[in-house]
Amino acid sequence: MRVHLTATAAAAVRRGHPWVYRDGIAGAAGRAASAGGRGARAHRAVAAAAVVAASGEVVELAAEGAPFLGRGLWDADSPIAVRVFQRTQAPALDERALAERLERAFALRDGWFAGRDTTAYRMCNGEGDRVPSLVIDRYDRVAVVRLDGGLLAPWVERLLPHLARALGARGVRSIGLRAPAGGADAEGKKLTHVHGPPLPERVVVRELGVAMEVDLARGQKTGAFLDQRDNRARVRALAAGRRRALNLFSYAGGFSVAAALGGAGRVTSVDSASAAHATAQRTFRENGVDPSAHEFVTADVFDFLEKARARGDRYDLIVSDPPSFAPSERAKPRALGAYRRLHTAVARVLDPGGVLCAASCSSHISMEDFVGTLDDATLERDDLRVRALHGQPEDHPTLPAWWEGRYLKFVVLE
């Protein structure tokens, strides 16, 4: 099927953006809607609605004056109608072409993680590795595959032999498929076995030499937030000589363990999920740290901060890494307000001379937007400065035209 794009969508594809939204579809099968004139917007909407294709179907992209812009896969259910895979006419878009893309992504990591001090990392970052919607994370001998949208679901069975061969050559023995959001089974498990020996529910991996327990069966993302690996190492370095560290939205305690190993005297971890604390405590023990010397609080973070301020508690290292406050562009104003409220509350319990590490994982919030929620007026103090700005690590690459891929912000203030 040939899909005709509006001028705006076509320009984005030429720049290398990998997504075509539904309102960028002008028509299909040789019928292009006019880009101008009265009723053009309504005509485009009708044309886009009339496009009928199954998820995973290969489509060619065209526009006025450009009979071929590229090829992609159609998604029948997502607001992103097409993920763009190719911008050249050869070769064909098939499983062999996708397997070659995956092999290039895997080979790139071979030189980065050749030692055994890091056994968990991202092997394919979807659009950033030019394999849109496909994420593959490695946890030692296990690989977890996650699909964004339904367009690659029909391709999984065809790609599996290629994946098993390429991953097996790198020491991966088992492959699991992550369920889509809300797809957990009756026991809360989100992982389906698709290849190799049975999947463990939990696995201990190493991250820059630090042990980390990962809940593959029920954890967030594919089991762990691998994109914060370098930032956890930064927190470990910042923790030297700190008396009291606070990790907010602590989840499985990655930043907490980093702070403890770095020398923080007492680390307080705050999360609303008590099960996450149990994982964190096992990780503490794996690293030879007694969790009883630290504090694990099951509470709402905002409520905790209010009570901590009332008690007069102060911390000289604080990490704040909340879940995404902006799941959509429409939610952005509300999200910025939530970040400001959070950062105001955090600053009130930060000691003079302390370090604040503030993170955001929302692609709809730019770095400048986020830094703006850490200004003097918000923090109600003028003794802090931005020491460093960080994003995701090298195994989470992005594309120049795909700003959405630069989602992670990690700001260090001191």
From TrEMBL:
Cross-referenced InterPro entries: PUA-like_sf, PUA_sf, RlmI-like_PUA, SAM-dep_methyl-trfase, SAM-dependent_MTases_sf
Superkingdom as given in the UniProt entry: Bacteria
Protein name: SAM-dependent methyltransferase
Domain RlmI-like PUA per the UniProt entry, residue ranges: 3-87
GO BP terms: methylation
Keywords recorded for this protein, A-Z: Methyltransferase, S-adenosyl-L-methionine, Transferase
Example of a GO MF term: methyltransferase activity
